[in-house]
């Protein structure tokens, strides 16, 4: 399971200030700490304001690349900002976060994914809005996967996000999401599943327990990647434990080494 | 998911000393703390030595009952000790922990389960020893469930233990165990699944992360009960979170109340 580290996001208060002040050191500090904590990708979201996003994405990607060797996830709904990010990164290294089945977004984003050989996060929704059932999700995915196939993007470069809904308001959706993760593994031709983890606990107190418990459940269902905060030590302990329990940490060696390094 | 609290066990050093000294206060302290932490059943294992087990079980059950209103799990492979425990408890309240498909154990234990209307933990093994595959487990269960049916024990009074193997030495067995939990829910006619949780982490450091991560996975697979240590606060937080995520904590009210009580 890959960890896509979410902290460099202009929607966070401290990061908004850093973006506004062009404080590269603040972004670089977040990038280094997330990499050190076990991030596999560093997500960069520069959507401080629609006007500034293109320039801020270009600036932020350059800043983060100067601080870490980890690959980046270029996180934007704005095709121009996505291009600004992807064109600064080694071809084939980045994740494009994200596309959906909305026609306009598909048309604008898929050529970029193909041109820069990016992995692609695909949200399981279309122009009809947030999905409620597996059938809704598969309808949107049918459209998306037909389009990615036409654009020549291999299925194993696609991470499908079933769209996690808050358990506080949609209690049945946690199980629905886990079912979708299993179905994606079985039916999406080699595409993986990804979740934006913290959505599950939105609106509840002590969110960290809910986040890491759901992460464990999703890992057992076959999750390929999670967008989350690797600076939560107990969450990363759950990630390391989940890798043992899903058979992706041979002889539990990474777990044992993490314990020796004082990380558990 | 029910929590069967495991700390009153003569195999633990501190408890062995308490059993040997007939220190009722030590057992009662463990019983009260486990009940307070959220135990649904208090397990009592008095197997200090084969000769003394009958007397110690009788003594321990009386001691624990004087300290808590929680129901008990009478934990022994010795039918006489099981009888000593069950006959001191309200009919229909206790768990008999455990039976297996071993012929001699079935013959001795099932009449006790029927007489005292106990819930029964059934280990998915028979005279051929520890199971490796789901087929091995179902072969043993076929024998056990035929016998419990003949003894008139309703399926919904049975908790099947698929027998968790340590992930350190049997990495594929974690997934196998989760698959068995799902199959038990689908194929065992209303019986539930239970695990002895800490077996999963045997032989590894920092076991608590593995235990609670596996608990989350097992909960999502449909686990009915776990034998575990409720005095591990992060484990109980995972239990509370898992109840939200599996839809058994309506409106997450127990989770929210636990947070307000400072338990999360």
Short description:
The first copy, chain A, has helices spanning 13-20, 24-37, 53-65, 79-86, 103-115, 134-150, 173-187, 207-221, 233-245, 253-260, and strands spanning 2-5, 41-45, 72-75, 95-99, 119-123, 158-161, 192-196, 225-228. Chain A is α/β, with parallel strands linked by helices. Chain A has an eight-stranded parallel beta barrel, surrounded by five helices.
Question: Mind explaining what this structure looks like?
Answer:
The structure is a homodimer of 264-residue chains. With 264 residues, chain A is an alpha/beta fold. Chain A has one domain (2-260): TIM Barrel. Chain A contains ten helices and eight strands. Chain A has helices spanning 13-20, 24-37, 53-65, 79-86, 103-115, 134-150, 173-187, 207-221, 233-245, 253-260; strands spanning 2-5, 41-45, 72-75, 95-99, 119-123, 158-161, 192-196, 225-228. An eight-stranded parallel β-barrel of chain A has the order 1-2-3-4-5-6-7-8, surrounded by five helices. In chain A, strand 3, helix 4 (79-86) and strand 4 (95-99) form a beta-alpha-beta unit. In chain A, helix 2 packs across helix 3 (53-65), helix 3 (53-65) packs parallel to helix 4 (79-86) and helix 7 (173-187) packs parallel to helix 8 (207-221). The longest helix of chain A is centred in the middle third of the chain and has 17 residues, at 134-150. The two termini of chain A are 18 Å apart. Chain A binds chain B through residues 167-168, 171-172, 174-175, 178, 200, 204-206, 209-210, 212-214, 216-217, 219-221, 234, 237-238, 240-242, 244-247, 250-252, 255-256, 259-260, 264, and chain B through 167-168, 171-172, 174-175, 178, 200, 204-206, 209-210, 212-214, 216-217, 219-221, 234, 237-238, 240-242, 244-247, 250-252, 255-256, 259-260, 264.
């Amino acid at each position: 399971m890959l960890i896509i580290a979410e902290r460099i996001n202009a929607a966070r208060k401290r990061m908004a200030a850093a973006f506004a002040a062009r404080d590269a050191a603040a972004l670089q500090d977040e990038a280094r700490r997330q990499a050190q904590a076990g991030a596999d990708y560093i997500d960069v979201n520069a959507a401080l304001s629609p006007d500034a996003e293109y320039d801020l994405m270009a600036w932020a990607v350059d800043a983060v690349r100067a601080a870490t060797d980890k690959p980046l996830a270029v996180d934007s709904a704005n095709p121009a900002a996505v291009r600004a990010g992807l064109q600064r990164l080694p071809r084939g290294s980045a994740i494009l976060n994200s596309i959906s089945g909305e026609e306009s977004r598909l048309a604008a984003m898929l050529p970029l994914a193909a041109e820069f050989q990016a992995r692609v996060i695909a949200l399981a929704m279309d122009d009809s809005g947030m999905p409620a059932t597996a059938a809704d999700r598969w309808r949107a995915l049918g459209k998306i996967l037909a389009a990615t196939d036409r654009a020549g993007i291999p299925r194993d470069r696609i991470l499908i996000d079933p769209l996690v809904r808050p358990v506080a308001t949609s209690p049945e959706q946690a199980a629905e999401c886990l079912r979708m993760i299993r179905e994606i593994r079985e039916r999406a031709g080699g595409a993986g599943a990804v979740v934006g983890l913290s959505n599950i606990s939105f609106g509840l107190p002590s969110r960290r327990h809910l986040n890491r418990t759901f992460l464990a459940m999703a890992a057992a269902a076959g999750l390929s990647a999670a967008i989350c905060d690797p600076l939560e030590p107990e969450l990363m302990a759950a990630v390391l434990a989940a890798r043992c329990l899903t058979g992706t940490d041979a002889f539990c060696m990474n777990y044992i080494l993490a314990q020796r390094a004082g990380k558990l």
